[in-house]
Design a protein that fits this description.
heterodimer; A: 109 residues; alpha+beta; 4-stranded mixed beta sheet; 3 helices; B: 170 residues; alpha/beta; 6-stranded mixed beta sheet; 30% strand; globular
Chain lengths: 109, 170
C-alpha cells in the first residue's frame, strides 16, 4: 500500500509504514475489523481493527501511542480479540517500541 | 550511562565456546561458510571462528542504513560464492528480525546447501519476522545493549563485556 494514499491516525503508524517499505514488506492499513462483543441476539456490537496487516507473516500489528497506564481499553480489546479469534496473530507495538526499533536502526553511525 | 555488565567477558567466552562446540559437531566433515553482519557482529564472529574446531571460511555482509535510498540492500556483499555452501549467518542482535530475514532471503536465492542463523543476542519482544535461530548466545530483555562490538552512536564497541545502556539513541 502506498503511504501517500493512507490517512494514518498517528505519526507512529506512518513511521512504521515507512519501515515496512524500507524492508519491502507488503502491508495493509486497517484491512479487517474483528467482532469482539455480541448482543443477546448474536449480533456483533463491538469491533477491533488492528492498524496493520502484514500478509507475508500473517501478522496484525496494533500501534498504541497512549501511555501504558492508559492502555487499559486497548488491552481489553486485545484480550477479547485473542479470546474470540485465537488464530489471529496480533502484536501490540507501543510508541516506545516504535521509537526503539528506530533507535536500533540508527545505532550504526 | 552503563553500570555492571549484563554479561561479563567470562560469560561471553563460555557461550561462544559452547556455540563453537555445537557448530563443530553439527558441521563435522564440512567446511561451513560463516557470514557476519557488519559491523556489530564482527567481534562475535572473530571469537566464534576461533572456538570452532573444524575448518571454516568467513566473509561479511553489510546492509545500508535505514533512510538511505529506496529500501534495504546489501551495501557490501560477500566475496565468497554461497551456492552449495553450508552457510551460518552470524548476527549481533535479532530484534524485529526484519534485517536478518532480508539477508536470509537474498542468500537463499543463491542456493546454499544449508543456511542457519547464529546470534549473539536474541531480543524477541518486538519480533515480526519469525526467523528460526539455531544458535543464540543470550536472550536479552528490552534494553539497549553495548559492548563486545555493539555500539551506541559509534561508542563502546571496544568493551569486552555486554552492558545495558541507560538510554536508547534519540
Amino acid at each position: 500500500m502506498a503511504i501517500t494514499r493512507v490517512a494514518f491516525a498517528h505519526a507512529s503508524e506512518a513511521e512504521l509504514a515507512r519501515l515496512f517499505d524500507f524492508y519491502r514488506i507488503t502491508w495493509h492499513y486497517e484491512p479487517h475489523s474483528f467482532p469482539i462483543a455480541w448482543n443477546e441476539r448474536g449480533r456483533p456490537v463491538e469491533f477491533f481493527t488492528p492498524d496493520f496487516y502484514l500478509p507475508e507473516y500473517d501478522l496484525y500489528i496494533e500501534v498504541t501511542v497512549a501511555k501504558p497506564v492508559r492502555n487499559t481499553r486497548k488491552n481489553r480489546k486485545l484480550r477479547l480479540l485473542r479470546s474470540h479469534h485465537p488464530r489471529v496473530n496480533v502484536k501490540l507495538f507501543t510508541r516506545r517500541d516504535v521509537e526503539r526499533v528506530f533507535s536500533r536502526l540508527k545505532r550504526a553511525s | 550511562m552503563i553500570g555492571d555488565p549484563l554479561f561479563d567477558a567470562e560469560s561471553i567466552a563460555g557461550r561462544v565456546s559452547a556455540i563453537g562446540a555445537a557448530i563443530s559437531a553439527d558441521y563435522a566433515g564440512k567446511t561451513p561458510l560463516m557470514i557476519g553482519l557488519l559491523a556489530a557482529a564482527a567481534t562475535f564472529l572473530a571469537d566464534l571462528v576461533r572456538a570452532v574446531t573444524i575448518p571454516c571460511h568467513i566473509d561479511f555482509i553489510a546492509v545500508n542504513n535505514y533512510g538511505d535510498g529506496e529500501g534495504i540492500l546489501f551495501e557490501k556483499d560477500v566475496a565468497i560464492p554461497v551456492q552449495g555452501r553450508h552457510v551460518i549467518l552470524v548476527d549481533d542482535t535479532v530484534d524485529t528480525g526484519l534485517t536478518l530475514q532480508y539477508v536470509v532471503k537474498r542468500l537463499l536465492e543463491r542456493c546454499p546447501a544449508s543456511l542457519e542463523v547464529c546470534t549473539l543476542l536474541d531480543r524477541p519482544h518486538r519480533r515480526i519476522a519469525d526467523i528460526e535461530i539455531k544458535y543464540r548466545a543470550f536472550e536479552v530483555p528490552d534494553v539497549f545493549v553495548v559492548g563486545y562490538g555493539l555500539d551506541y552512536l559509534g561508542r563502546y564497541r571496544e568493551l569486552p563485556a555486554l552492558y545495558a545502556h541507560g538510554t536508547w539513541p534519540a
